[in-house]
Amino acid sequence: MPLNPDFRYNLVIIGIIVGVIIVAAFVLIVRQRSMKPVAGKEEMVGLTGEARTDVDPKGEVFVHGELWRAVTKGDMIKRGEKIEVIAVKGLTLEVKKSIEEV
């Protein structure tokens, strides 16, 4: 028994819609996987902030709206100087003097 021509057109339209949805979902998944993390340790590395105390080698810094314990392996960082996060170890940030002004 042959299909009604109107029914065939409906199947084509449904197939096109499903295909578009699948392609859109695939594009969104690929884009999401290539984005930079927005939470956790990975997000903190590279952020800049300000030293709230002298960091020699330990002190406190203000980064991302929060006060953090910090250590530096480089030169002493004076209170008020701009810093950059280079690593996160537990709840302590490893920082260095920031080259660019925030």
Return Rg in Å: 26 Å
Q: State the assembly state of the protein chains.
A: single chain
Domain module count:
2
- Give the uncertain stretches in residue-range form: none
**Structure annotation, total helices:** 2
Query: Can you identify the CATH class of the largest domain?
Result: Mainly Beta
> Total number of β-strand segments?
5
At CATH level 2, the architecture of the largest domain is: Beta Barrel
The 3D shape can be described as rod-shaped
Order of helices and strands: HHEEEEE
Strand content: 25-35%
Largest sheet: 5 strands, mixed, barrel
* Separation, N- and C-terminal Cα atoms: 74 Å
The structural class is: alpha+beta
- The level of helicity is 25-40%
What name does the CATH topology of the largest domain carry?
Answer: OB fold (Dihydrolipoamide Acetyltransferase, E2P)
- For the residues shown, what is the average pLDDT? 87
CATH superfamily of the largest domain: Nucleic acid-binding proteins
